[in-house]
Each structure stands twice: as structure tokens, then as C-alpha cells.
Specification:
heterodimer; A: 343 residues; alpha/beta; Rossmann fold; 2 domains; six-stranded parallel β-sheet; four-stranded parallel β-sheet; 12 helices; B: 312 residues; mainly alpha; ABC transporter involved in vitamin B12 uptake, BtuC; two-stranded antiparallel ribbon; 14 helices; 75% helix
């Protein structure tokens, strides 16, 4: 699936022409870009690394950049990743693309890289160091939209179950804050219970199975992606009526959605972050090296799957993987141009 | 009565019963059956790996298997990949999961015995390799279990979850082996004093070898069951069982210093670990408070169970 099918079409049309003209302001064929990744232990991160390989491989072959090497730390520790970034500085990379273990703990290493003249682009797990670029997802808005969607389906409101992510992680706090902002906006809803699913399906299944017996009737489940199928399994096992579960982008939860739709006309929505955002970060780094003026803060739209696009998305998602979007150079230029327009 | 209180395993069961009662009292009794059923389902996985960990910890100070999560992930991943959702392959999948367990146990003990590495280092380092193998073999793709196997692992017999029956059967076997067989006596003797056991003619290294094999096979089996239960293997599926497997052993009243094990206590602790989280979730405790309370309660039970043992 191409970004153009869901990115604001107008913005794309307006800027595509002018952006293409200035694709290679400075030659980047000697530039070496490194990916510093803090974790590889789930399907989202695996898809992220796969996308990186699929997009940067041809880019290296075509000579757009000289190298695009991916490195992953084994223990998901900020200290380990800081050491990894310091190694990359010594190895003389021109740009470092980083998915950070912590928004603040890597700032020292990132500053060292900037001082050495290296372009640092952070995405997904962003860093707060001002010299780095940030490609962020508006997680707060994602949470709010979940409640907005439920309000459109259930105008009379009711009790909701919230499945949160990993306690203490920035993303979890942001999405949850967005959900609670949504509840304030639509006060007909109330969060009857909240559990932590650690973004893992089996943990979510266990947590939901544990809290369900003490809950009143639930009309909707708000999630953070990756835990919808676990919730559905737990609710089915308890013999309850299936509420509207806001899903993420894993193939198994979307397949479940399709089956439910075919059997009983089940309707819901899926909101998530495409793991291919790593490829957007790659092109942004390439554009900065090419001399493009890129604003420090870029926003990437989240991936929405609706009842209408479900079949198409599912057909394009490998079995057992996650729905994904890989970005091209033109897509990156469109995102950059949009941010430039806001400056 | 006093004989009952003196049993170290009673505390984990009391705690589980209390957590259960507190959760159910919130709804005035509604949902009690549901909660008990969920506790038995999810408790079974913790109980099976917990019994494996208990055997290793019984070997004495320094013995622990930290490769349990990676073994579960590797066994689940390889078994589900081999089965490929095809009907009639459940037995083959099980054989693969158990073979992975055997292989892991063999590798772990080779590191411990031949290279003389402390078990904590050996199993932790080896687990990185097992986890990498799991990632490399399937890159995190989630393959559904065959339908019959999925139905079995999520199904029930006589109102008790099938996985709980499996866990119960394993508990009985482990109890008989520990309490009634020569090998079980050897294991206890090794844990109480390895030097004395060796001088008394116990084949200490053979006992250790068999124990490290047993824990890995139980972890492999749990990985297979959990992956079938939750609709496929995930790369992070074993993560929470690292601390869980050790916690259920300690809460269950086995001695962390080794030499004394307690099978019923492991099951009680496994139920408790599920119920305490459910209870705190039901009362709406925020994540921070929930972790603090869980830790405090665990310390309380361990103190209660261990002081009783000293007195008797």
C-alpha cells in the first residue's frame, strides 16, 4: 500500500511537483547511514527491520547512498544503545537513524554525534536532544480518535475497557492520555476497568481474563494495538457478547475482524503505527545529507484501516505479520514539504 | 491444624484464596466461576515452568535456569512453524517442542559442566542464542496452531481447563518422583549438601544433568501449550515467565537455598500470581501501586512460609 492512498491527498499534489525537481541537491552517493535500533523481540520490530532492508538495499544498489547498515542492541538498554551510537561515531557514519530506548538517556551520545557533524534522525522512540530530528507519531491524537470512533458508533455511550501498553513507557502514557481526553470530550463513556497488556497478545489475554469477571457490561475496548486479538479471545472464552474492540495492525487481529464481519457483520476500526516508518526516517536522513532544509519536527500519520479498506489491507499483509507501509523518496519529500509549510 | 499451618505450601494457597475472595466480593459473588476458570488456565503455564525451576533450585545454591523464556519462545516458534496450521500435526509439533527442550537442556548442562560456568551465567548467555535462533527461524511471523490443537488447549474437560489437567498431571508425576523415587532423594540430598551427597555415593553430576534436562523439557512443553493457547507463538511470549518461574517457587514454600522442594505450593503460588494481578486490576489500582503491592505481598508470604519452616 502506498502512502498516497491515505496521506492528505491535497498536500501531496501541491508539493510533489516542486519537491521532485530538487531531489538531489548534493550528491549523497558516498554517504553512509546507520540504523541504531534498541529492540528486535516482537513482530512489529521485525517488520520494521525487514522494511529497512527492503528499501535501503535497492537504494544502496542504485548508488543513492553508499551504505545503510542496521544494528540492534540485545538487551533493550539505553546505556548499551549509547555505547552503540558512540561506536557509530567512531566508524565515521554520516547519518545515524535511531529508534531510541529512552527519550532522554541517549541525549549525551546524540549530542556527541551532532558535534562530530553527524546527522541524527530519531523516529518512533524519539530523543529530546534539540540537535536531532524527530519523526513522531501523534499518539495522543490516536487515543482520542479511538473514543471518537466509538462515539460515532455508540452515541448513547457505555462502559469501556482500556488495555494499556507497557507501564512507564512514554508511548503508553501518551495514548492513554489521549483516550482520557476523548472520554472528557464524550462523557457518555466511562472507563470501567484498565489493565496493562504490555503490547503482547498473550499478556493482554491474561489480564483481560482476570478483570472481566468483576466488570459490568462492556460496550467497547480501547487498545494500543497488538492486543485486540488477545482481548477478543478472553471475552469469547468468558462467553460474553463481543464489544467493539478498536484493533491494531497485526494480521491475526485483522483476520479475526474479517471472520467476524463475514459471520455477524461486526464493524470496527484499526489504528496503528506502520513499522515502515523506519524507511521514512532513512529518506529524511538522506534528504538532510543532500542539503534539504528539513524542519526538526516531522509528524507521520498513523495507519488507519476501516471496514472499507480491510480486505485490501489484509490481502497485502503477509500471514502472521503486521500491516505496513513502506515509504519512497517522494513520500518523504511530501512529508518534509508539509512540515516546511507549517513553519 | 497446627500441622497444617506448619506446611510451607499452605501460605500460597491461603493467599490465593484471599485474593480470590477479595476479587469476587467486589461483584457480590458474580463471576466467581469465570475467575476460577481463568486462574486455572493461566496458572497452569506458570505452574509447569515453575515446577521445572523448582527442581533446578532444589539442586542447591547458584542453580537456576534463566533460559526458560527463550526456550519457551524457541520451542513454540519451531513447533508452530513445523505444524504450519495443518490438521493432524499436533503430535509432531509436540515432539519438536520436547526435542527443543532436550537440546536446550543438553546445551545448558554442557556449558555448566564442561566449561565450569556458573549456571546463572551459562543459562543467561545461552538464552541469547536461543532467542536469536527463534528470531532467525521465523522473524516473528505468527503462525496459527492447527484447529484441533487450538481447541484442545483452550477447551475444558469436566469444567476444568485442559491445560490445567496437563499441569496437574505433571505436578503429580513430579511429586511422585521427588517424594517416592531414589532419584528424588538423590536430588534433595545433592541440594542439601553436595559434598556429603557425593561422599555418600550419590551420582551428583548425573542428577544435575537430568534436572537441567527436565526444566528445559518442561519449558519447551509450556511454550508449545502457550503458543497453541494464545493463537500462535510470539517472540516475546516467554518474557514474563523469567521472574514468574522463580517467584512461584519461592512463594510456594520451596527453599531458595535448595534441598527442600514443594510441589503443591508451586500450584498455589501460580494461582496466586494470576489472582493478585486480577484483584488489583479489579480494584483499579494504578500500575505503580500494583507493582509495589505485588512485591510487598510476595515478601510477606515468603517471610510467613520461611519462619514457619524454621520453627518446626
Amino acid at each position: 500500500m502506498r502512502i498516497s492512498t491515505w496521506l492528505g491527498g491535497a498536500a501531496l499534489c501541491a508539493v510533489a511537483g516542486s519537491a521532485l525537481a530538487e531531489a538531489h541537491m548534493t550528491d549523497t552517493s558516498d554517504a553512509r547511514i546507520a540504523l541504531s535500533n534498541n529492540y528486535a523481540g516482537n513482530s512489529w520490530r521485525q517488520a520494521m527491520l525487514q522494511s529497512w532492508e527492503d528499501v535501503t538495499g535497492p537504494a544502496v544498489e542504485e548508488g543513492i547512498v553508499a551504505a545503510a547498515d542496521a544494528y540492534t542492541t540485545s538487551e533493550n538498554q539505553a546505556t548499551e544503545q549509547a555505547a552503540q551510537i558512540q561506536n557509530m561515531i567512531l566508524q565515521g557514519y554520516d547519518a545515524i537513524v535511531v529508534n531510541a530506548a529512552s527519550p532522554t538517556a541517549l541525549n549525551g551520545a546524540v549530542k556527541e554525534a551532532c558535534d562530530a557533524g553527524i546527522v541524527v534522525v530519531s523516529f518512533d522512540g524519539i530523543v529530546t536532544e534539540p540537535c536531532a530530528w524527530r519523526i513522531a507519531v501523534d499518539f495522543h491524537e490516536m487515543g482520542r480518535q479511538e473514543v471518537e470512533y466509538l462515539a460515532s458508533r455508540l452515541p448513547e455511550g457505555g462502559n469501556l475497557l482500556e488495555i494499556r501498553g507497557l507501564a512507564g513507557v512514554f508511548v503508553d502514557d501518551e495514548i492513554s492520555a489521549g483516550i482520557h481526553a476523548g472520554i472528557e470530550e464524550f462523557p457518555q463513556f466511562e472507563i470501567a476497568g484498565s489493565v496493562h497488556g504490555d503490547w503482547a497478545q498473550d499478556v493482554a489475554q491474561k489480564a483481560v481474563a482476570g478483570i472481566l469477571p468483576s466488570l459490568p457490561e462492556i460496550v467497547g475496548v480501547v487498545t494500543q494495538g497488538g492486543d485486540g486479538y488477545g482481548a477478543a479471545e478472553a471475552i469469547r472464552a468468558a462467553g460474553r457478547d463481543m464489544p467493539i474492540i478498536v484493533l491494531g495492525n497485526r494480521q491475526d487481529e485483522m483476520l479475526w475482524w474479517q471472520q467476524q464481519r463475514d459471520e455477524s457483520g461486526y464493524e470496527t476500526i484499526s489504528l496503528s503505527i506502520a513499522p515502515g516508518v523506519s524507511t521514512l526516517a532513512f529518506w529524511v536522513a538522506q534528504q538532510i545529507l543532500a542539503g534539504e532544509e528539513v524542519p526538526k519536527d516531522l509528524t507521520v500519520p498513523f495507519l488507519t484501516v476501516t471496514q472499507d479498506t480491510l480486505d485490501e489491507t489484509l490481502a497485502n499483509t503477509p500471514e502472521g505479520s503486521v500491516a505496513n507501509v513502506e515509504y519512497s523518496l517522494e513520500d518523504a519529500q511530501a512529508v518534509i514539504a508539509e512540515a516546511q509549510g507549517e513553519m | 491444624m497446627s500441622a497444617l499451618i506448619a506446611r510451607p505450601w499452605i501460605w500460597s494457597w491461603l493467599a490465593a484464596a484471599l485474593a480470590f475472595a477479595l476479587t469476587v466480593s467486589l461483584t457480590g459473588g458474580r463471576g466467581a466461576g469465570e475467575l476460577a476458570y481463568a486462574a486455572l488456565s493461566f496458572g497452569a503455564f506458570a505452574a509447569i515452568v515453575g515446577m521445572g525451576q523448582m527442581l533446578v533450585i532444589t539442586l542447591g545454591p547458584g542453580n537456576v535456569d534463566l533460559s526458560i523464556p527463550a526456550t519457551m519462545t524457541l520451542a513454540g516458534t519451531l513447533a508452530l512453524k513445523a505444524m504450519g496450521s495443518d490438521p493432524g500435526t499436533a503430535a509432531m509439533g509436540l515432539a519438536i517442542a520436547l526435542a527443543v527442550g532436550l537440546g536446550v537442556g543438553l546445551a545448558n548442562f554442557a556449558l555448566i559442566y564442561l566449561l565450569r560456568l556458573p549456571p546463572i551465567i551459562a543459562t543467561l548467555a545461552a538464552s541469547l542464542i536461543y532467542q536469536s535462533l527463534a528470531i532467525w527461524s521465523n522473524r516473528g511471523l505468527r503462525i496459527k496452531p492447527p484447529e484441533g490443537l487450538a481447541d484442545f488447549s483452550t477447551g475444558r474437560t469436566l469444567a476444568v481447563p485442559n491445560v490445567a489437567w496437563v499441569g496437574l498431571a505433571i505436578a503429580v508425576v513430579v511429586w511422585v518422583v521427588l517424594e517416592r523415587s531414589t532419584w528424588g532423594r538423590w536430588l534433595m540430598a545433592t541440594g542439601q549438601n553436595m559434598r556429603a551427597a557425593r561422599l555418600a555415593g550419590v551420582p551428583v553430576q548425573r542428577v544435575r544433568f537430568a534436572t537441567y534436562l527436565a526444566v528445559a523439557v518442561l519449558a519447551g512443553l509450556t511454550g508449545y501449550l502457550l503458543a497453541s493457547f494464545s493463537g500462535g507463538a510470539a517472540l516475546n511470549m516467554g518474557q514474563e515467565y523469567l521472574l514468574m518461574s522463580i517467584a512461584v517457587v519461592v512463594i510456594g514454600g520451596s527453599s531458595i537455598a535448595g534441598g527442600y522442594s514443594n510441589v503443591p505450593g508451586v500450584w498455589g503460588a501460580a494461582l496466586f500470581m494470576f489472582l493478585v494481578v486480577s484483584m488489583l486490576n479489579s480494584y483499579g489500582a494504578p500500575a505503580g501501586l500494583r507493582l509495589v503491592l505485588t512485591g510487598t505481598i510476595i515478601i510477606g508470604i515468603v517471610i510467613a512460609a520461611s519462619t514457619r519452616r524454621v520453627r518446626t
